[in-house]
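Pasting as-is:
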Amino acid sequence: MSSLKIDIIAVGKLKEPFWVAACAEYLKRMSSYANVQVKEVDDVSLQRASSPERVCELEAASICKLLASSTRLVVLDREGKTFSSEDIAALLENQLDGSEHHLSFVIGGSHGLAPELLKQAKLRLSLGAITLPHNLARVVLLEQLYRGFKIVRNEPYHK
């Protein structure tokens, strides 16, 4: 799986050491499966942007600068499709079997993602009906990607 490249593009920076440590742990665990990188863009304040829609537009502009032209764009969206761990494993496996070997997952800010970014996505992925803080959503996504790699390789998952 080492030919697979995955970018996690997230609005906002992790500040608390426990979020940083959790993400680092899963990135370390995945290093033998794929080249996984986290790229952060600054969140835009409502005061600076004047409306939630403008916040999303400005954040989308920053996100788009980090998207490779050859990537398959997956956005996290509460109205997206809910995947099981096995579905995520199948997504990873299909990427390796296809011509695209680059996935980009985007986690928006507190106001969500701009409509134009949602339209560009090949897949809108939901982590479920519950609302998660963006920092936790990042950890959950990384954990599920790691679990997906373990499933694809038919390896036991170490808890």
